[in-house]
């Protein structure tokens, strides 16, 4: 039986790479995006060109009404949502003293509320064998200046991941997170402003490349597979010994 995946933030970066891999491997995909219609259409086109099935939907996941709508559309088109991958996220980098209420609320709305809304809907609708994978960040361990808002949201998502895993375990639904290294998969939120070099300062080390998407995609694909039924409630750190 073919499965269906809902991927938030699926038009670029890690989300797009995951969407393509899933689609190429025969998983039907709903590509969620916000403000990247052309990029989302490109992901869908690539999947369809490879013989897969996909469609794109624009929505603001920070709005609590978006998650039910996304699930409704996926179910109407494909019958169910078997896999949820939360990739949607933004970064507002600033020292805490300079973070306005509006900046904090924006990051909170997309990174935390967005994931909360889709996880809640998945908890209500997913059937046995369902898979939820949240994309987190190794920035939580680096404690970089300027990342207080971002880290607060990712820490909360990891906490919900662990709790929801215990709540959904009896239903045969797994919940995990993958914490990626800074700059993983050319992630838009981590694009560098210093001549293409991603500069992150653990021991003054410069990370002079963005990690290939495939380094992350394979792990997410495994967690979403039937083979990963005993991996549950875990935060898997996918990075180059950054932390």
Key attributes of the depicted protein:
single chain; 243 residues; alpha/beta; Rossmann fold; seven-stranded parallel beta sheet; two-stranded antiparallel ribbon; 9 strands; 41% helix; NAD(P)-bd_dom_sf; 3-ketoacyl-ACP reductase; KR_dom; SDR_fam; oxidoreductase
What is CATH's topology name?
Rossmann fold
Which shape, going by the Cα principal axes? globular
The appropriate CATH architecture is 3-Layer(aba) Sandwich
The radius of gyration over CA amounts to 17 Å
Largest sheet: 7 strands, parallel
Annotated CATH homologous superfamily: NAD(P)-binding Rossmann-like Domain
Mean pLDDT: 88
Terminal-residue CA separation: 39 Å
Number of helices: 7
Task: Please indicate the percent range of residues in DSSP E strands (runs of 2 or more).
Answer: 15-25%
- Please give the domain count: 1
- Major β-sheet strand ordering: 3-2-1-4-5-6-9
Report helical residue fraction.
40-55%
What pattern of helices and strands is seen along the backbone?
A: EHEHEHEHEHHEEEHE
Secondary-structure-based class equals alpha/beta
CATH top level assignment? Alpha Beta
Low-confidence stretches: 185-209
Strand tally:
9
């Amino acid at each position: 039986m073919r499965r269906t995946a809902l991927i938030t933030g699926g038009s670029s970066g890690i989300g797009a790479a995951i969407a393509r891999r899933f689609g190429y491997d025969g998983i039907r995909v709903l590509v969620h995006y916000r403000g990247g219609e052309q990029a989302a259409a490109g992901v869908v086109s690539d999947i369809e060109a490879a013989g897969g099935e996909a469609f794109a939907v624009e929505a603001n996941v920070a709005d609590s009404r978006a998650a039910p709508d996304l699930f409704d559309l996926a179910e109407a088109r494909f019958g169910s949502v078997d896999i949820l991958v939360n990739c949607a996220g933004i970064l507002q980098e600033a020292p805490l003293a300079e973070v306005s209420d509006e900046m904090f609320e924006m990051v909170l709305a997309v990174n935390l509320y967005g994931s909360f809304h889709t996880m809640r809907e998945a908890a209500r609708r997913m059937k046995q064998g369902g898979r939820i994978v949240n994309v987190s960040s190794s920035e939580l361990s680096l404690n970089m200046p300027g990342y207080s808002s971002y880290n607060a949201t990712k820490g909360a998502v990891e906490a919900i991941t662990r709790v929801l895993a215990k709540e959904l375990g009896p239903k045969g639904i797994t919940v995990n997170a993958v914490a990626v290294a800074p700059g993983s998969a050319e992630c838009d939120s981590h694009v560098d402003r210093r001549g293409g070099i991603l500069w992150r300062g653990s021991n003054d080390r410069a990370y002079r490349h963005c990690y290939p998407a495939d380094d992350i995609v394979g792990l997410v694909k495994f967690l979403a597979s039937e083979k990963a039924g005993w991996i549950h409630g875990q935060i898997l750190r996918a990075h180059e010994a950054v932390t």
